[in-house]
Amino acid sequence: MKTVGIGILGCGTVGSGVAQELQERSSLLAERAGMVLELRRVAVRDLSRSRDVSFEEGVLTDDPRSVVADPSVDIVIELIGGVDLARELVLMALTAGKSVVTANKALLAEHGKELFAVAAENNADLFFEASVAGAVPIIKALREGLAGNQIQRIVGILNGTCNYILTCMEDGGTEFDVALKDAMEMGYAEADPSLDIDGGDTAHKALILAALAYNRFFDQSDIVVDGIRGIALDDLQYAAELGYRIKLLGVILQDGDQIAVRIHPALVPHGRMLASVTGSYNAVMVDGHLSGTTVFHGRGAGREPTTSAVLADVVDVVRNLSSGATGRLPVVDGTADHLSLRPIEDMRVRYYLRMELLDEPGVFAKISECLGSHGISISSVLQKSSVVDGFVPAIIMTHVAPEGAFCAALEELRPMDAVGDEVVSIRVEEFEEAE
Predict the structure, then answer these.
(1) Residue 434 confidence (pLDDT) above 50
(2) pTM
(3) Does 2 participate in catalysis according to the annotation?
(4) Which of 130, 140, 330, 365 is deepest in the core (most CB within 10 A)?
(5) What is the longest distance spanned by two Cα atoms in the chain?
(6) Of the residues 98, 205, 366, 384, which is catalytic?
C-alpha cells in the first residue's frame, strides 16, 4: 500500500488530537483512505513544552514554513488559527500543489475567494469540514449531498459556547456572567470570549455556509451581527412563559436575487427542533427545493469532534490523491455576481420587546400609537404586576414588519419619559419546516 505524507501546522488541543489519531488509528485510516497516512512533520510554537502525544525524533519543528516546504509532506493540515500567518502558509501549500485541510473559519470567511482560486489554479484540494459545527458534516452535505438543490434557507445554532451559556441560564436560573464563568471553567469559552458571545464566530461560520450555498462571498461588515451579551435571565424566563427559547442563530435566506445573512439571538418556538438543542451542541437546518428540510445535529466544538471532521477531510483528500482526482469537488469561486446582499432595513422580522413602562393610565396607548405610526402591529402583551420606582415590566410581541421600521420605532420609544432606561429587543424566528 502506498504512503502519503502528512504535515500539521499547530499542535494545540485539536492538533494533538489529530496527531494522536493518525498514530493510533493508522490501520483504520489506511483502510478507509486506501493509502497509509504517515505523520512526517508537525510545527509547534514551543519545542520544550510537554505534550500528551509523543513524536519520533525530527518530526517536531518550530518553523511552520519548513513543514509546508518539506518535499515528504503531501497534505498540510492547518490548525494554528489566526489569519495572517495561516493565510501565508495555506497559500504557500496550495501554490506548491499541496492539498490543505483547515479548521480556520476566520481565514475562510475573510480570504476564502483568494484561497479557493489558488487551489483551483494548482489543482489542489482545500477542505474545511472542521471550520463549521465540529463533527456535524454540514460542509459535505452542502457540497455533495444537497448539490442538486436550490438552497432556500439555512438556520443554525453554530456556536457551542453561546448555546451552553443560554442553556445554563435557562436550566439553572443563573445570570449571564455566572454562566459565562462556568463556560470558561468547562473549557467551552476562551480567556477572551468576545468572538463567541458577540457573534463574530457564528458570523464567520454563516458566511462560509452562505458561500457554499450561493457561490457568493459576503463581507462581515455588511451583515447583521448581534451576540448574546445583552440577554438577561428575565428575557429567558419571559420567553419561556410565551412558549419560546432564546438561541443564538445564524440565518441565511434567499429571496430572488437577494441573500439575507444575519446573526442574532432569537426567540424560537418550543415545538421547533432547534429549540431543543442544548448544551454545547450545534444544529443546522437546511431547506432545499427538492430535499425539503434536513437537520444536522451533533457536537459542535472540542478536541474530539473537531478531530473527527479534520480526519474525514484528510481521508477524502487521500482518496482523491490515490485516484488522481484532486480538485474533483467544485470549489467556491464567488462568481455569482447576480446575487446581492439584502439591505438590513428591508428584512422582515417579528420582535420581542421588553421595556419598563410608567405605571400610569394611557401609557400603553402611547406605546401602541408609536409602533402603529411605523406600521408595526402588536400580536400580544405580557404585563407584570411588580412595580419598581413607579415602572412595571411589559413584554410586547409584534407582528412581522420591516427591520427599518423597528429601528425607527425604537429610536422614538427610548427617549420617552414613560419608558425606562432599558428597551430590550430580540428578533423572533417563526420558521416553518419545509415539506
Answers:
(1) no
(2) 0.93
(3) no
(4) 130
(5) 83
(6) 205
